[in-house]
Write a structure and sequence with these properties.
The protein has helices at residues 2-13, 34-46, 64-75, 120-136, 172-177, 181-205, 242-251, 271-282, 317-331, 360-366; strands spanning 21-25, 51-56, 79-84, 143-148, 169-170, 215-219, 239-240, 261-265, 297-302, 337-342, 353-354, 357-358. With 368 residues, the protein is α/β, with parallel strands linked by helices. Helix 3 links the parallel strand 2 and strand 3 (79-84). Helix 4 runs parallel beside helix 6 and helix 9 runs parallel beside helix 10 (360-366). It is globular and about 50 Å long. 49% of the residues are buried.
Length: 368
């Protein structure tokens, strides 16, 4: 009861955050059993969640679970920011294309196809009819996001398990100069990605219900929470800096096809540290009102770790301070931040719905 009372008080006190679309990631929502999916959506609906971020993917050989998930969410009054997953779907690559294997020494580096091998026509042959089916049901999506963290070796097989640069952050010059086979492949993959986003935009433009739904470029992560090129990472894989990937793709036409830039922000520290990191390497290319220089950003993932995962009641106090700092700082960007999706709904490590209730950090994350 104290948790709910505190949550209500926070909700009442945080309306100053109002900006754009506010939602939460429901990771692998399509993989939940129908009963668990209905339970999660009913709980979210009761707690005022109106938008979730969830995947359009092939699961157990079928796209039906994703389609059912989108429809179920809509029936609960919840729109979906739909991520078209591309890192692990063989339908989008030439027959026989090998996935770069997962890292046996790092459980968060999954097997992934090389982005440079993506075939745009194969992608659109599959995704086009699926989006048309959703559109034909009169379901309004919150966004159409192509891919996820394409500078992260977990989601881009162009990045080797043992990086030729020794597990460091790669910058814009690395992509332009192409001094290694890895950076050449990365550059090729990003150019192909822009072509794929152009094709997704063309599909969107021919929809009816979703003709104005924003097309969002893949959420880009901030490896090592740094903007320093050549920064040594705590892994053997190289990773591409958020601003390097975004700058390279913008130079190759991204602004013609993306309505919003997807970015991710996992930032820890004091309010001043979070504010500095947002300003220095997460939101640097988001359009400020009236600039006309770029597109707004969609923060499709942001979040803070649970202090004691799996423990009830959850130790949520530190996260409430961090979440409040984050929301306060992003609010200063106004319309340059088009949306914010907390990661995650009920994940033990990052979730905001834990121990049977919405945590105080969740109230802050979901406040309009």
């Amino acid at each position: 009861m104290r948790t709910f009372a505190f949550a209500a008080a926070l909700f009442a006190s945080t309306s100053v955050y109002a900006q754009g679309t506010i939602g939460v990631n429901l990771t692998n929502a399509d993989r939940l059993s129908p009963t668990k999916l209905q339970s999660a959506l009913s709980t979210q609906q009761a707690l005022g969640v109106r938008v979730i971020r969830a995947p359009l993917e092939k699961y157990n050989g079928s796209y039906t679970p994703s389609l059912n998930m989108v429809q179920a969410a809509w029936q609960h009054g919840i729109r979906v920011n739909l991520i078209i997953t591309i890192a692990n779907n063989p339908d989008y690559y030439p027959a026989g294309t090998a996935m770069r294997p997962a890292d046996p020494n790092n459980p968060v580096i999954y097997a992934a196809y090389p982005l440079s091998a993506l075939v745009v026509q194969q992608l659109t042959d599959v995704v086009g009819p699926l989006l048309q089916q959703i559109d034909g049901l009169g379901i309004k999506l919150a966004g159409i996001e192509l891919g996820n963290e394409i500078g992260n070796p977990a989601f881009n097989g162009d990045l080797a398990i043992i990086g030729p640069s020794g597990g460091v952050t790669l910058g814009l010059r690395d992509l332009i100069n192409g001094a290694t086979s890895e950076t050449q492949a990365l550059a090729s993959g990003y150019r192909t990605y822009v072509q794929a986003l152009a094709a997704i935009q063309a599909i969107r433009d021919n929809l009816v219900t979703n003709q104005t739904t924003p097309v969002i470029s893949a959420g880009l992560h901030t490896p090592g929470d740094t903007s320093i090129v050549g920064y040594k990472l705590a892994m053997t894989e190289d990773a591409v800096l958020l601003n390097a990937a975004l700058s390279f793709m913008r130079a190759n036409g991204l602004d013609n096809y993306a309505d919003q830039y997807g970015v991710h922000a996992y930032l820890w520290g004091s309010q001043s540290q979070i504010a500095n990191e947002l300003r220095s390497f997460v939101l640097t290319q988001c359009a400020v009102p009236g600039s006309g220089a770029a597109k707004p950003c969609a923060i499709t993932e942001w979040g803070f770790q649970v202090s004691d995962p799996g423990q009830c009641p959850a130790n949520d106090g530190p996260r409430q301070v961090s979440a409040q700092n984050f929301r306060t700082d992003t609010a200063a960007y106004g319309s340059a931040v088009a949306s914010q999706f907390y990661f995650d709904w009920s994940n033990l490590g990052f979730g905001i719905y834990l121990c049977g209730s919405l945590q105080g950090s969740g109230v802050i994350a979901l406040s309009p």
